[in-house]
Amino acid sequence: MPIEQTHLETQLVHAGVRKQAFHGAAVTPIVRSTVFETQKVVDYHDVVYPRLSNLPNQNEAARAIASIEGGEAGLVTASGMAAITTVLLSVLQGGGHLLAQRPLYGASQHFAQTTLPQLGARASFIDVRNPDSWSGAVKADTRAIYVEAISNPVLQVADHRRIASFAKQHGLVAIIDNTFATPVNFRPLEVGFDIVVHSATKYLNGHSDVCAGAVVGSQERVRAVKQWLDILGGSADPEACFLLRRGLKTLALRVGRQNDNALSLARLLEAHPVVEQVLYPGLESHPDHPVAREQFSGFGGMIACTLRGGAEAAQQLTRQLKLVTHSASLGGAETLVTIPAQTSHAGLTAAERQAAGIGDGLVRISVGIEHIDDLHADFEQALG
User: d(Cα 128, Cα 119) in Å, to the nearest integer?
Assistant: First the structure.
């Protein structure tokens, strides 16, 4: 009888692997074939075909992510947005109303406020810091509530237990994007969420060489999402799934280091005279620090800060950093900086960004696993 995988670090290494399927191999090879001998099939969605997300690499990555999130089933998609949009379409099919956090990642917010109405559905945005306002936003056809574990890019942390309870009270599907927190720091299903989504491009892969997404939930809910994904076609490539599964093995090690590095760097930035404001849930100055401390086991690797001097100072910082790369992505082993108004949230209007607290001088930092002394030195020279 196999030893039960009770600890996350063990699950990350072993979950989803079926060694006997490939002659006892410890690592599942990349299976590229698009043609498989037809077996007895009772449903179209069970036909073995890459678009139907049931090849060996796809299945292994999905099982592993489901295991580490504590879900019954998982699904891997071609990108984080493929995961998010497919989940929302499966829940809002035929029309319906969504409650969504503001601000969200730029593409998610655009989909909710612009694309959904074009498809016969609609969304209203709520302030997750004002629970008394939530009930007033519920409509007769509201079906779901969608939030981010740590919001992108202003790093809000909602009272997620309260959101999950609110969703159950009103019969809503509770959906959360756990990309920034990762299952190392937060496990949404355990506090009552129904569906978890990830941009697996980020921390789950962790090496900046994959584009993928993930969905986790009950068998019933994931099956419903898969039927939409099968038709829409946003399935993940087997090689991406192979790299994603490989990256998962070190997730706990990487995120632990990123938690430590980010807290240290946030403290350095907060004390620097050139820095006007630092947003990091691990700092006592962050308005959501109490709830983050209560519900998270770590505060993540993302920092947002505003420099004295606004947009010009922010751009100068990105030019002066030597070790740190100016890039729009996040969650990799290397430290990255970006100006969200020019990248992740450039698709929003200036008024929308301003309403969400995303100024032109806001800098988002994705802290990597480098030695913290080297990161300190690079930011100190750049700010100087």
Answer: 26
